[in-house]
Amino acid sequence: MPLRCLMLVTICVVFITTEAVSGENVKKAVGDEVSFHPDIINSPVTSIIWKHKNGSGVVVKAIEWDDEGFNIPNQKFKSNTILDEKTGQITITNLTVKHGGIYTIDINNKEQEHRFSLIVMDRVPKPVIKIKKIEGNSDIVYLICEYSETIIWRNSTGKILIASKHHPKGEFITAEFTGNPDNFYTCTLDNDVSTETSEPVYERDLFQDVWGYVIVSASMVFIILFLFIPPCHGAECPPPQAPAAAQSGEKARYDVPSRRYMTDTELPKLHDSVKKHIHSLLQTSSAFSFTTDIWTSSVSPVSLISLTSQWIDESFTPQRAILHAKQLRGSHTSQAIVHVFEEMLQTWGIPKTLVHVVLRDNAKNMIKAMNNAGLPSLPCVAHTLQLAVHEGLLAQRSIADAIAVGRKIVGHFKHSALAYSRLEDIQGQLNQPIKRLQQDVQTRWNSTYYMLQSLIEQKRVLGVYVSEHELPDCLTAHQWALMEKTVAILAPFEELTKKVSSYDALASDVIPAVTVLVRLLNRKTDEDHGVKTIKATLLAAVKKRFSDVETNPLYFISTILDPRYKDRFFSNNTAPEAKLHLKQELQMMSRAEAEGSRAEAAEPPAKLFLKAQASTSSSLDTVFEEIAKEQPQAAQPLAAGAAIELDTYLGEAPSPREDSPLKYWGVNKIRHDIRES
């Protein structure tokens, strides 16, 4: 890093550390704190008095010290003012507007020359954009920011827009329909102590009537093509025949179907056809897994609950279908969720006895709803991983501070098109790819990891930038090192989150993933210096949040029956119990088949549990292979039949993790026909 850059970083750090002001005009926000101190203070010091003069000229003592101790005679300085008798520095916290004015200091009953001016201002509110539509012109709307503070308008490209004055206060801009629903506008309020930006207003929300017409028109075109293009190709299609009227020389007349005809007749007909087809597919399975979630539409103020089904057909091919999206009215209580969920199952004629598991989020109302409905359920693994990551990031103050500084730097570029253009120019000068810094969002998984990663990638670029331009804060060399180590620790979490969030993710991956994470976090390396706290907290969080996975049959049976994992990834005290439980289940099923009656509650193990995943992330390959190659515990011999068949299966080497477990069982279902053993 250039010497000038290092000097700027040093100055920045010193400024942040001292904070006190000597002989300056200072502006602060309500709730902030400020410190003033004299330039020099000569010993011996027997008394110090700080005085405050408000805008009306009234002078009061803020705080005083002498041989008898400290005294704060004025009420507005009590409990929020401290004095360092050695340096003469006064510090006032929780500032209010009344603290504004001129401060002077008397040392040894002699008034000093320095004057300290303090202005305390209210923070600007978060603005809300008002929308005013123009009658007779649906392609233009007025956006109004009705505030007295300095107003800055920007569009989605970051460009600052020219606004017009709005009476009695504020500014407005004219937004025109461009055809891009992702275009948006923001209003930023700014004063000397704070800045706030409104929520973006998107074009798709400003011109709903126009976009509704575009969507309906496109849908009608698609439906017309779908309905009237003959289902044949190439030589199979007969030559086109002209209508009878055209063949006879008369002028043909065509009636284009109306919008009402399409929405009232053809769309319901198409819906019924697809629903009938899905119904026929559902009849081929004896067990189903479901995914459900609740979300709010951004287009209309309604809450929806979804129902997506997954099952395995007779050829061990995974099938899935989105069955329902139903409005959830009123409070999202567990009783309301149970009622709507049971209605959706009844609509599709699926009894509860065929529900293998419901994958849900970690909200308490959803957990209680599934328990009250008597349905087995599992939480979202990706969400649970992110909760553990959140605990780890907050555990170590130095890392949390580095993340906060990084967030300020990214926010600076996010709110300044000029700053971003300068950053891109430097990227080009250094022959680096043009990349934007990633902003972390609390509700977006892995976003803090991506933010730190993007900052580290642009470390050299930012070093050049700070030598020429200002930044709201600076990262020290120690903080850069902490960020790099933090990214290395979080990398396995990011990879596993992506894998378990994929469309073909399976429950059989959970126990192996937790085992690998625990082993990685337990390993001591030379790079642990400075990040031991976050590593230990992550380890404790993973163990706590996944403490029951090896005792949950929905997890351990699917893991044992996954040929990539089998019993290799269990801890020593749970593997025998898991295998014993599975053998007992298989023996019960064998006895039921021998009697010629299948228990209604019993479900075929191949279809019930085998929902495996494709592969695990590359950075974890070494640990996965290490565990897979370890010798399993000696199997305890049980009775003949299904138990022996299971022991034979477990005694074979695991399949490569790249293989599909469903394909394995599709090929080996005859060789491992456990049910008929």
Automatic annotation (TrEMBL):
It is found in: Nucleus. It comes from the Eukaryota. The keyword rRNA processing does not apply. Its main location: nucleus. Residues 1-23 form the signal peptide. GO terms for molecular function: zinc ion binding. Keywords: Metal-binding, Nucleus, Signal, Zinc, Zinc-finger. This is Zinc finger BED domain-containing 4-like protein. The lineage of its organism: Eukaryota, Metazoa, Chordata, Craniata, Vertebrata.
